[in-house]
Write a structure and sequence with these properties.
The complex is a heterodimer of chains A (112) and B (115). Chain A has 112 residues and is mainly β. Helices cover 0% and strands 57% of the residues of chain A. Chain A has no helices and eleven strands. In chain A, the strands form two sheets. In chain A, strands 2, 4, 5, 9, 10 and 11 form a six-stranded mixed beta sheet that branches. Chain A has a five-stranded antiparallel beta sheet with strand order 1-3-8-7-6, with no helix packed on it. Chain B has 115 residues and is mainly β. In chain B, the strands form two sheets. In chain B, strands 2, 4, 5, 6, 9, 10 and 11 form a seven-stranded mixed beta sheet that branches. A four-stranded antiparallel beta sheet of chain B has the order 1-3-8-7, with no helix packed on it. Classes of the chains: A mainly beta (112), B mainly beta (115). Chain A binds chain B through residues 4, 31-32, 34, 36, 42-46, 49, 51-52, 89, 91, 93-105, and chain B through 4, 31, 33, 35, 40-45, 48, 50, 55-56, 59, 91, 93, 95, 98-109.
Amino acid sequence: KQEVTQIPAALSVPEGENLVLNCSFTDSAIYNLQWFRQDPGKGLTSLLLIQSSQREQTSGRLNASLDKSSGRSTLYIAASQPGDSATYLCAASRGSQGNLIFGKGTKLSVKP
Amino acid sequence: GAGVSQTPSNKVTEKGKYVELRCDPISGHTALYWYRQSLGQGPEFLIYFQGTGAADDSGLPNDRFFAVRPEGSVSTLKIQRTERGDSAVYLCASSFLGTSADEQFFGPGTRLTVL
């Protein structure tokens, strides 16, 4: 059974710092790995999707990597801003139909 | 529409009552997913539709939960005999083809509170 874990549960950093959020999964037979952002009381916003055949994806200040052999993915945020404050969720696709298994998230706070 | 919409945004009901939650996916998206998110947890998969049919309902917790998508667009999640443990945010997502290569777009969710 696939389990997704995110560490740390919460992170507070000063503005401008580069930071890394970690995600681990127990079953390497994933179809993709997605990172989402969730603001309080809101739905999820997709940030990056990495296919199982890919190693990384980049979008602006965000870079996500995937290492299936070790069961890990990282989300790198460069030059963090207060507007980056949110909960970041990673999710592994449990099948070809895209059904997702989520971690509990990392709550990020960027202090001005 | 421009994004996935869900109604109502909030629903308060009493234990034992029946509720319906509605999801309007992005126009043209064939795949629709329902997830449930409890406080402090990540979303948990409930059911997946491809067109009008439920392709995977393995996440539905019990037979009190049922979902339909009669015309392949709008979906309704139905919960019978609600229990306090059903309180959560119910999220709906849609994607273009429903494959693992497709990005899922989420709605804002319906917060269900069972008193």
